[in-house]
Amino acid sequence: MALVELRGVSKSFRKGDETITPLDDIDLDIDAGDFVSLMGPSGTGKSTLLNLVSGIDRPDSGTITVDGTEVTKLSRSKLADWRAANLGYIFQTHNLIPVLTAYENVELPTLLLNLSSTQRRQRVELALEAVGLSDRADHYPRQLSGGQEQRVGIARAIVAHPKVVVADEPTGSLDTETSEQVQVLLQRLNKELDITLLMVTHDRDAASIASRQLMLDRGKFLERGGDKESGSLGEWEVGVGNAGDSVAIKKFG
Ligand SMILES: Nc1ncnc2c1ncn2[C@@H]1O[C@H](COP(=O)(O)OP(=O)(O)OP(=O)(O)O)[C@@H](O)[C@H]1O
Fold first, then answer.
1. Cβ atoms of residues 188 and 198 within 8 Å
2. What is the per-residue pLDDT across 161-185, written as a single tens digit (0 to 9) for each?
3. Which atom of ligand 1 is nearest the CA belonging to 200?
4. Best mutation site among 10, 47, 52, 216 for ligand 1, i.e. most ligand atoms within 8 A of its Cβ?
5. 22 CB under 6 A from ligand 1?
6. Which of helix, strand or coil describes residue 37?
7. Ligand 1 close to Cβ of residue 43 (< 6 A)
């Protein structure tokens, strides 16, 4: 069983008289240890997908299972606990709380977990160390650079030792050099700490650091074939990211 399994997932929104259905009967498998990047045109439902996987929103139909737990079946209160323990979320703009230090921002999600103060301190220190910011623990967000703020946001996402971390354009508001540093950091977290990552991005370079590259195109997943080890990238193939769909080759961009 894959770590993350989506089966027959659909999600619609009402906009005035119109119904928009960005995700219609989607299937997807993500294995433990995968680093998946997800690209696709604006409005195709990438953020919607992250919100469903992280239990922030619910699908209209279909099931989402993470590490054996059917997230779509959890009650609202159980979902909050599940999310705190199992899911990390990295935002495009880090969403740090300005009146809290880096340490306190990272500590915040751990307050929802059943941990002693010693365990909590260890987790926060480890997370800050993992993103190379131990020496900035007492700084407030305004005293940090954009890249450092994003690294604090990443530390906050991993502090609970989640099963999965989802990231919505984590390099979207960073300059090229800082973006590259964050990409290297995400790759290290995946390889060294074995964190399973699902990252939405519009940046081809950021997408290419992932071990699997998906594209969401008109409600269907395309997956980039090729040999990651040798660096040769193939074409986008329909249906590979999907569980079950027929596999037809289609050129994309
Ligand atoms: N809460 C909501 N209420 C109404 N419509 C919504 C809501 N959330 C998303 N949508 C609509 O669903 C569609 C998919 O939105 P989503 O943000 O998932 O796309 P996206 O692929 O992430 O786009 P982008 O690349 O521009 O961030 C859009 O048409 C959007 O307007």
1. no
2. 998 999 999 998 888 888 998 899 8
3. 22
4. 47
5. yes
6. strand
7. yes
